[in-house]
């Protein structure tokens, strides 16, 4: 199961001096696997303070990609595991490749677009009528409570 954070971790380690990679890896992993955004930010701050001088390039990569890599922490815990993986995209790409291998050579660009479009429509129908990947009712309720919290905060501030 590949995750978005796996490629982010590789980018950070590529920018880290070799002698610090084993030391920095568990700290970054802890940031990416934090239970909530506040904890992730606290761990980020601690890591930056310790490694800023030793591995400036790696820390720059970490800070620049932090918001993207931890965006999933803003969602309900139930949805995080599925949304932080790239399995859905990988499966779609594999299905496109499987169909493309049968045809091998396309006569023109439009034929490729028709093939992929038909595949996407087929997958959409399966998702719409088949087993649900997510129960969106629960998510929509969660989103509504989040919006209510934001409104009440703004009202208190204003």
Short note summarizing the structure:
This protein has 158 residues and is mainly alpha-helical.
What do you see in this structure?
12% of the residues are buried. The model has no long low-confidence stretch (mean pLDDT 86). The longest helix is centred in the last third of the chain and has 22 residues, at 136-157. The chain has 158 residues and is mainly alpha-helical. It is built from eight helices and no strands. Helix 1 runs antiparallel to helix 4 (56-69), helix 2 runs antiparallel to helix 3 (37-51) and helix 6 packs across helix 7 (109-129). The chain starts with a helix and ends with a helix. It has two domains: 4-80; 86-157, no CATH class.
Shape: flat
| Helical residues, percent | over 70%
Number of helices: 8
The poorly predicted ranges are none
Q: What structural class should be given to the helix and strand makeup?
A: mainly alpha
Name the beta content range: under 5%
Output the radius of gyration.
21 Å
Topology (SSEs and partners):
Blueprint: H1 4-14, H2 18-32, H3 37-51, H4 56-69, H5 77-83, H6 87-103, H7 109-129, H8 136-157
Helix pairs in contact: 1-4, 2-3, 3-4, 6-7
């Amino acid at each position: 199961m590949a995750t978005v954070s796996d490629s982010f971790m590789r980018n950070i380690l590529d920018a880290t001096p070799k002698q610090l990679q084993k030391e920095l890896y568990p700290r970054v992993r802890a940031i990416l696997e934090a239970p909530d955004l506040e904890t992730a930010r606290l761990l980020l701050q601690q890591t930056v303070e310790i490694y800023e001088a030793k591995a400036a390039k790696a820390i720059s990569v970490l800070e620049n990609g932090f918001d993207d890599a931890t965006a999933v922490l803003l969602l309900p815990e139930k949805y995080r595991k599925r949304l932080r993986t790239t399995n859905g995209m990988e499966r779609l790409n594999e299905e496109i490749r499987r169909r493309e291998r049968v045809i091998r050579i396309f006569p023109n660009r439009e034929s490729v677009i028709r093939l992929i479009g038909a595949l996407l429509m087929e997958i959409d129908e399966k998702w719409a009528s088949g087993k649900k990947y997510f129960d969106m009712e629960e998510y929509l309720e969660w989103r509504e409570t989040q919006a209510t919290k934001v409104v009440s905060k703004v009202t208190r501030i204003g």
